[in-house]
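wait is this the right file?? whatever heres the structure
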């Protein structure tokens, strides 16, 4: 794993944990933890950018009490990913966190997995081309004070303003912007990466034209901040000038200022004391802003040097005053035109004849009366329908008992008919037997 700190310094960690696809096991990093000393350190790499620090702490909340110090770094090779360095109070807590979180998904809605490893060695590079200074994991107990805070006095929590007990019983969190908090204080500040400076680690979107969305050849107004495209695109920056008379725009690619009124770039002007005029200065001195003498090898005395600097400052002040006066004059003309337009609108409203206003109000009243009449007719229809349904419901309820009695009577008659139908086969059998006997009597009599 690797990460980046602030102030132009880079940090690297060597971890011995495994990849993110492997499952967690009881013996994961056991040998490395045993060799890491009584206060081992773990590193969590490739933390996704969408995961806020408070959400990351919530992810570790079941075992957060065992973390003595946590610091977030940015990956040097993948700026959209982060890594976190965790120092634990004992080996058992570190082993439990490594076993429970390695290979675990950060969220059930995302595919990113937690990748953790044991820090065997921590190296801090002070600058380019220098060999990194190394410390072992056994010497990492003094890491927070030496690694984060270069002052003699311990820092204060940026939320509760209480002293942070470095290396003591406090759980400490350090963000990318190197602000330090108590863990309990930081977890209460949700919704922002840092509650102090509001630093957001995400990549900033490129400037784009507010009308057409072009991201190249963008010009930003120095008066109101409007972003528009240049003359080689759709010229929305010039359209903004014609609409508002904001003359100065910054070209984002070259960082040069364009004057739409003068139709040219605004260059550094120098004050010529002999002629009391502003002249364009050629930047041929390699970035040296002091006025050079005419003789190439002549040195200025202290008084002449002071006068040259003073003349230059006077020229810059006068240049600034000229630019400010011109811009204020354009702003005054613009807003005076706006005020005049508003006055014309008010005068037009005042000049409207009362008879026209009365006629318009009468037409509006007639429309409202017609609408009210239509609504009243609709209400009457609904009331008639409601009365009909109410009478129908009353009749149904009144005849309900009669219908129930008739249903009971019909049910009894049906049952009697069913009983009679069941007796018919038996009677037919009896009639058959009687007919047989009569036939026998008739035969014996003959």
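ok assuming it is, sequence goes like this
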């Amino acid at each position: 794993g690797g990460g980046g700190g602030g102030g132009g310094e880079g940090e690297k960690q060597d971890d011995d944990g495994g990849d993110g696809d492997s499952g967690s096991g009881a013996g994961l990093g056991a040998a490395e933890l045993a060799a890491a000393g009584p206060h081992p350190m773990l590193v969590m790499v490739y933390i996704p950018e969408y995961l806020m620090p408070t959400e990351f702490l919530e992810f570790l909340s079941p075992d957060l009490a065992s973390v003595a110090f946590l610091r977030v770094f940015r990956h040097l090779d993948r700026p959209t990913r982060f890594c976190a360095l965790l120092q634990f109070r004992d080996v058992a807590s570190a082993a439990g966190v490594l076993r429970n979180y390695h290979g675990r998904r950060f969220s059930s809605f995302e595919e990113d997995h937690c990748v953790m490893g044991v820090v065997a060695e921590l190296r801090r590079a002070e600058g380019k081309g220098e060999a990194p200074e190394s410390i072992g994991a056994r010497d990492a107990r003094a890491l927070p004070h030496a690694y984060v805070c270069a002052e003699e006095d311990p820092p204060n929590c940026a939320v509760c303003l209480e002293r942070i007990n470095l290396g003591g019983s406090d759980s400490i969190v350090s963000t990318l912007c190197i602000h330090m908090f108590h863990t309990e204080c930081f977890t209460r500040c949700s919704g922002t990466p840092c509650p102090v400076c509001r630093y957001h680690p995400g990549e900033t979107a490129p400037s784009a034209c507010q009308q057409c969305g072009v991201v190249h050849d963008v010009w930003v107004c120095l008066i109101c901040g409007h972003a528009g495209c240049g003359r080689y695109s759709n010229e929305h920056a010039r359209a903004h000038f014609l609409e508002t008379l904001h003359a100065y725009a910054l070209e984002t690619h070259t960082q040069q200022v364009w004057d739409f009124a003068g139709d040219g770039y605004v260059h550094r002007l120098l004050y010529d004391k002999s002629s009391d005029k502003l002249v364009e200065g050629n930047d041929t001195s390699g970035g040296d802003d002091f006025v050079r003498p005419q003789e190439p090898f002549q040195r200025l005395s202290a008084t002449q040097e002071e006068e040259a600097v003073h003349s230059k400052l006077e020229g810059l002040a006068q240049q600034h005053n000229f630019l400010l006066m011109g811009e204020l004059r354009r702003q005054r003309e613009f807003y005076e035109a706006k005020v005049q337009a508003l006055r014309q609108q008010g005068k037009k409203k005042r000049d409207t004849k009362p008879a026209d206003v009365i006629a318009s109000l009468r037409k509006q009243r007639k429309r409202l009366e017609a609408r009210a009449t239509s609504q009243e007719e609709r209400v009457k229809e609904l009331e008639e329908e409601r009365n009909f349904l109410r009478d129908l419901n009353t009749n149904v309820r009144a005849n309900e008992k009669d219908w129930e009695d008739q249903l009971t009577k019909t049910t009894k008659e049906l049952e009697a008919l069913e009983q009679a139908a069941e007796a018919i086969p038996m009677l037919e059998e009896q009639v058959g037997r009687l007919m047989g006997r009569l036939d026998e009597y008739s035969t014996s009599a003959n």
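The chain is about 40% helix and 20% strand. so i think its the right one actually
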